Amino acid sequence: MSALTAHGKRAMAYGHASFSTMVCDRAMLIVDFCLATTIPYLVQLLIWQYVYKNQDAADIAGFGYHQLVFYYAYALALARLNNGYDVIAQLSAHVHEGRLEVQLTKPFPYPLQKLFGFLGESSMYFLPLLFILCVQIAYAGTPTVSYHPAYVLGMTVLVLLSQVLCFTFSFCIGIASFWI
């Protein structure tokens, strides 16, 4: 049992260190949040505003303008959340620079080091999801999703599973990239 808690503490330490690195790298935060997230959203917002303004009907394919804007905001935030490029790049760098052996000698398994590091880095991207939800609640009242605890728990589990799946694919691609 104590080995399990020791692994849990190490896992949390890797996640916390990765989260702290993301927060400390303010230039990355500005570039990633402002340029890579906000600008594509504003471009889509302007395009859809023009399309809906020149449309005779209020809805396009059953979506009103505000529904589509919130849909795109959630889709963009989830896409930023499930981005495993860093896992691939870091694994490739560890192999090419000969640092993989050093990582493998640590008492915590290398795949778990990378998984909890990925989860720690990704936790920063939950903030835009919460921000979008707050804006939607303030603008349109209650969102169309249920507040039932089973629904919220199910969605949380699905988002976490999507994170693990994204990491697994990225890790596999990273491993395969230096074999090719």
Topology, number of strands: 0
Helix-strand pattern, N to C? Answer: HHHHHHHH
Strand fraction: under 5%
How many whole angstroms does the radius of gyration measure? 20 Å
Shape: elongated
What is the first-to-last residue Cα distance?
41 Å
User: Which structural class do you get from the secondary structure elements?
Assistant: mainly alpha
Instruction: Indicate the low-confidence ranges by residue numbers.
Output: none
Q: What characterizes the major β-sheet?
A: none
Q: Approximately how much helix is present in the residues?
A: over 70%
Overview of this protein structure:
- The protein is built from eight helices and no strands.
- By secondary structure, the protein is an all-alpha fold.
- It is elongated and about 65 Å long.
- It starts with a helix and ends with a helix.
Q: Which terms summarize this structure?
A:
mainly alpha, 8 helices, 180 residues, 79% helix, elongated
List the helices and strands and how they pair.
Blueprint: H1 2-24, H2 26-53, H3 65-81, H4 85-96, H5 100-104, H6 110-122, H7 126-140, H8 149-177
Summarize the entry for a quick read.
This protein has 180 residues and is mainly α. Helices cover 79% and strands 0% of the residues.
